[in-house]
Write a structure and sequence with these properties.
CATH class: Alpha Beta
InterPro entries: CENP-V/GFA, Mss4-like_sf
Pfam family, one: GFA
Bound molecules: zinc ion
Largest sheet: 7 strands, mixed
Radius of gyration: 14 Å
Structural class: mainly beta
CATH topology: glutathione-dependent formaldehyde- activating enzyme (gfa)
Family: Belongs to the Gfa family.
Helix content: under 10%
Protein name: GFA family protein
Number of strands: 10
Organism: Spongiibacter nanhainus
Strand content: 25-35%
Shape: globular
Length: 137
């Protein structure tokens, strides 16, 4: 399966091959700082599964993760955590219905507890190099 992720202005397009490795909401301090949001929808893929097929997005780093954004509308399209074998695409850019989060991660940084029926990991799940430690909310 190949799908497209587009920024809101339509200039920058990503082509994504195959299924995501994982989908979740990230509460890390880096996501909060660059987005001005409490947490972000993230869809993870192997690095070679994601290609830029239209637009000339620019990359910058504020804290830790290099992030790539549309040159025209400024929307962050994806980030590439240093040393990680995956690329983190913003879940809200996927075609409708394709973002199906299974957890919240990096909840140790959460602005506020989010109470829902998904698991709330303190850091990352063990499957992504974390400890599987959970928050008590
Ligand atoms: Zn994050
Ligand atoms: Zn754009």
């Amino acid at each position: 399966m190949t799908q497209e992720a587009k920024c809101p202005c339509g200039e920058t397009t990503l082509s994504i091959d195959g299924e995501p490795i994982g989908q979740f909401f990230c509460h890390c301090d880096d996501c909060q700082a660059v987005a001005g949001a409490a947490y972000l929808p993230i869809s993870l893929y192997p690095r070679d599964a994601v290609k830029i097929t239209a637009g000339e997005p620019v990359q910058w780093t504020y804290k830790t993760n290099p992030r790539t954004r549309c040159k025209t509308c400024g929307t962050v399209m994806f980030s590439e955590p240093p040393g990680a074998p995956f690329i983190a695409v913003k879940g809200n850019l996927l075609p409708e219905g394709q973002f199906k989060p299974s957890s919240h991660v990096m909840c140790q940084y959460a602005v506020r507890p989010v109470v829902d029926d998904l698991p709330h990991f303190k850091g990352f799940p063990a499957a992504f190099g974390g400890s599987d430690e959970m928050m008590d909310w």
